[in-house]
Sequence to fold (807 residues):
Amino acid sequence: MMQDLKYAVRVLRKRPMFTVVAVATLALGIGANTAIFSVVNAVLLQPLPFEDPDRLVRVYATRGPELWTASPPDYTDWRRDNETLVDLGAFYRQSFALSGIGGGATQVTGAVVSASLFPLLGVAPARGAALSAEHEIDGAELVVILGDTFWRSQFGGDPEMLGRPITLGGDQYTVIGIMPSDFSFPSNTDFWVPLRFTERDLTTQRGAHYLTVVGRLKNGVAVERAAADLSRLADAIAEAYPRSNVGWSATVVGMQDALVSDVRPALIILLGAVGLVLLIACVNVANLLLARAVGRNRELAIRAALGARRSRLIRALMTESVVLGLLGGGVGVLLAVWGTSLIAALQVGNIPRLDEVGVDRTVLLFAIAISVLAGVAFGVLPAMQASLVDDVNRRLKDSGRSQLHDRRSGRTRHTLVIAELALAVTLVVAAGLLLRSFAHLTRVQPGFDPEGVIAFNLTLPDARYAEAHESEMFFAELLERVRALPGVEHAGGVFGLPMSGFSYSMSAYELDGIRLEPEEQDRRSTQVRVATPGYFESLGIRILRGRTFAEQDRADAEPVLVVNESAARLLWPDEDPLGHRLTIGTSFGLGRGRAGGTVVGVIPDIHDLGLDEAPRPQIYFAHRQFPVDFMSIAVRTSGDPSLVMEPIRRLVAELDAEVPVYAVRPVTELVKNSIAEQRFYLRAVALFAMIALILAVIGTYGVMAYGVAQRTGEIGIRLALGARRAEVLGLVVGQGMRIAVLGIGIGLVGAYAATRLMASVLYGVQPTDVLTFVLAAVVLSIAAFLACYLPARRATHIDPMEALRYE
Fold:
């Protein structure tokens, strides 16, 4: 084996051009596979970084097929009465203003968590103490546990921070712990504060679904059994509380599955696509080896004549192939390191755990494995054919010219070209489907005009803005000043911008003064927003009927509503909603009672989740009538929107220096980000398809050029006997196109079967879209024609006399 290794290295070094081309071809395939596998490994395969992660589950409230977060009363009932879970924990994310550090305030993101969450995950603070049940008691001292990164960035890693107070949202919290540096759950969380419920919360919030619930299965309990247990509990709760819980159930999903279920199909498709690229690269290298093997017939015949058995020759040739594969893998790993860094930096859409993507030991082992497998895959056919020693005497006598007529290797090369064209067709069809899907997405009208609009968030500290009129006055004063800035056309605020990930739904309670039955209340659930005057104008949202909010819609005026078309159809089908009254299922706004009002306006549907998601029913309350402490402010300008942000920051600081401006972004960015995941998949598959197309064209060109070289004497004789050059051109091109058409036809059949797996990632186009298949066939046909034409054109310029002398 050592002799074979040394000989393989020597042979590859003697033919540097061949080695460079083969290694570069393999590096593309192996590097792309390694980069995508690193994503699949981090997102789908790696266990969660918690104790016994296979026993961790997510517990959902369900309504029909929909999965929902839980309400506080339901969570406490599940935790107390279940029989299959060791314990449950709950949390929700919340932004706070961090003040008292260097002047001004900074918006930071924390998680409000139950004391049971950390023990459930099997983690504990690296310094200090954990949360306890005493911290969850309403009225107890406010405490906080800091994340390691947050502790170091905001407090310089001061070891004396334990026991010190920090100001969050205007309240004093005592630091009791610092979490380990590798812990961040939920992701991008700066700190954790205890979850608290009042007695009123546990009696009035059955319909308030905002808690993410995590559980741990008891030993020997399967997810299915736990799901049945929680479903039983949900039925009992619905029986006890029919007004709020009829129609609701519960289920349990493995935590890993809950995190990746949305992205698994697309990532598997990417892995399959990049696998096809590697196969095409292997086919190309196999063709190179077949061509090279013809020139080694005499060498192999001599070795056979000296006593080498066929198995010995195959081993030597396979060793060369594996060495070549490992060289390609080494370069491919370098490409993958760059690729994974780029992917991790993109933070694409909703793909979880992208920050964990990298070339670790598992990924390196994968790269080595596919390098060896690739070496075997592309080397086995050339080795088998080159090692045939059935006629040693003939091979020893061959001068090299007659070796070019090796029909057996020619048929094999043609078969390989057919295979790589078929694989390329599958990738080009997949890329075409994603391209058409993305084109459909970009043509979707969001329902508003994002151009020229910039937005930012403000959260008022509860400690200083507990009263409704304080929030109302702050936002009214701020918007009045913002509208007076040069270049500002409109300004308004909303409780959650469209496409920002914000979701807040409530059930209808009464329609036109008639209380709905519990089942009907749930069926008529809508998204709830609060908006100020000027908001609809800022986002360019048209008013279809009636009016939007005005300055006279104050707390002492009759409450009014604006609804979108979907909400109008849901609540008052076949009726004009103007003048109808609606009351929702719970209190809403600072210091207000049950929210409701009279419909005064109807707006078009808005894609509030994303361009690929259907619009949801939405109702809007007037902010002055139902104030909230969090608002997204949208500002439409006549020039560059970013230029108004510095004056706006000064205006906010003048009103309250401890209210930070955060999440500043153009609204166009929200629309763009809503399809970032689809854009990522499109670019990746399009890149792989382009590589596949280039490799297929190079492979076809190589085989055709080699075929022309084989037929030099024949073509010379034809020309000498009077054949026209156009006839020779047609002969050579026709032979190549017959091979290409066969490969493209097989590829279309394969693509028809394979692309059915893409249905879940397509929008507005079917996996079997005829136009895409036709265009893919045309593109491959043109590429194949060019690959055949260039060698054929060279054949027409052969000098007959030179060709005859060669023969």
